[in-house]
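Hey, can you fold this one?
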Amino acid sequence: MAELLQNPCSKFIFGSIKIERNAKRETRARSSCPGSRACMCVLTDDKHRAVVRKGNDSIDICRVVNGMWQTSGGWGTMDRDNAIDGMLRYADAGLNTFDMADIYGPAEDLYGIFINRIRRERPPEFLEKIRGLTKWVPPPVKMTSSFVKEAIDVSRKRMDVASLDMLQFHWWDYSNPGYLDALKHLTDLKEEGKIKTVALTNFDTERLQIILDHEIPVVSNQVQHSIIDMRPQQKMAELCQLTGVKLITYGTVMGGLLSEKFLDTNLAIPFAGPPLNTPSLQKYKRMVDAWGGWSQFQAVLQTLKKVASKHGVKIPTVAVKYILDQPAVAGSMVGVRLGLSEHLKDSNDIFSLVLDEEDVASIQEVSKRGRDLLKVIGDCGDEYRRA
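Sure. Predicted structure:
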């Protein structure tokens, strides 16, 4: 299953609410949907962070999230101590929200070591801003209370926390309605204080509505979202704006494809371009192929390079900022290769970058040249469920 989660599409054949702003620059989306509690996202005076709330549940996160899929193998040999030092450097740079999963190799264990170093080596006010978001990716078996509790206790132990900041739940098979049982048990664990916020990952719009109709207080849905993959801005974003559920996005720089490294390259010629030598590069190259191919993709990179040069930043910075500015998006993920490479400046440049109307129009125009991936693949997360 971990292999499938890392390499979706490997078997896939590609063929109204008013937003008010007050003097404190807060943005809130309130729900009036039946069966749903008040839910909102507040963009605070600190433009680095967003506060996501659902009823009495609340969590603030850094809007640029450090993704730790890269710790699961396939991105180079990782030294544990160097990885922890790398996490500390990201936190010291203000990039203090980390995303992981139970199936991402040692990711949760690394976070546990990291958070203990924070407790020992940083002041309490620094510790208060650290966030660890994890995912639970269970097999589609019977979801009993004891089974769910045991899994969550494992993550709590590995991460060395009494309460998980956010538990993002993934489900493989919609024909098995056990996901509702699992989410109800997760909500019970939240009430017991073992989880602070319950969230989803890779759920589609139809299932999100069903979950909300069952009054399960999910605060966010983590989905694939980039300039190439704009599916979340179709059906999903509309529901999110109505209910206040927020999106946390991954694949936003497409494993590094959206960068200067791949500008003006021709992958059709063997060894002519950079190697696609990581699971993420291979995964998102398949998305490029589904969207419109490498030639069309070069037009995207050229447009992004023009915008980036205008503002004195890099292509990935523009790519992430564009998605962060989309409706319903609370945070976007940038993968971190801990102890191997860093992009602290590029990530922090996202916060100060302001895309003007000309920038946005040029990116929208080139993004729309490709195929509609909602029609090609399906809704958010369908790439994990269609064979």
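The domain at 2-14+21-384 is CATH 3.20.20.100 (TIM Barrel). Let me know if you want another pass with a different chain boundary.
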